[in-house]
Amino acid sequence: MNQGLILKVGLFSFNIQSSIRSLSHNVATLYQDYPDELSEDRTRFIDFHICVEPPNLWHKYYKGQVQFFSDGFAPFTPLPYQHAPAMIEWGMNWCVAQQMNTHLIIHAAVIEKNGFAAIMPAPPGSGKSTLTASLVQEGWRLLSDELTLIRIDNYHVSPFPRPISLKNKSISVIKQRYPGVVFGIESTDTSKGTVVHIRPPKLSIELQGVECLIAWVIFPKYEEGAETELTAKSKAQSLMDVADNSFNYSRLGALGFDVLKNVIEYADCYQFRYSQLDEAIDAFAALELPE
Predict the structure, then answer these.
(1) pLDDT confidence of residue 57
(2) For position 257, which CATH number holds?
């Protein structure tokens, strides 16, 4: 991967480079189903040139650290070698969240079924990614695990399907429940604990050019031993909570408010509490489609 692997992921093209053999293998494993039609024509415009490498020989041989670079710029401090698989995924999120303003960007998972999307804004530890990983194995289309991209002209979601991030206990939950899922290399001892990414379903990648309207805004929360509850949430509170989870809401100003207001007005908004994945899957299957 020294010369770079060029991938089309949603709206964007990434040139990914690294001399780290394990990282090259991990990217090839997780991204094997993505279009690579740009590889034969390197004169085509690439949105993001990224790489993960040791910043210098000191960090490589004595510190055992690597660093993420975007167009030669290092936005993060160096991290241990074993964090490299997670670092490249975090870095790709950073590229889009920091540099794109043609869409309202929400820190939320987003999935689709029957032509309509459900977005799930939630803080770390809420069980969002575990729920997302389960739902996409149960027939929902993955639009994104981390970044919901909402067009500012028609309020549709633009897909950005990438490997889904799992942490700590959720790793074994998904491995046991879905033995056919392809896992990448684990990044251990990160600030979030053990992190690993799983390959998205091939159909989600094949349909990454298909946008859709948002029908549901659901705020999930995993609570051990809790009964499954899907309760209506006020639109005013939902708007404020989604805005708090946006990367560029303030940058877009009045336009960002208008986009979010239209999304919330159209969508049904819920608070969702669960502890059992079977019941959570059933609850999502029972969501009523817009009239």
Answers:
(1) 59
(2) 3.90.228.20
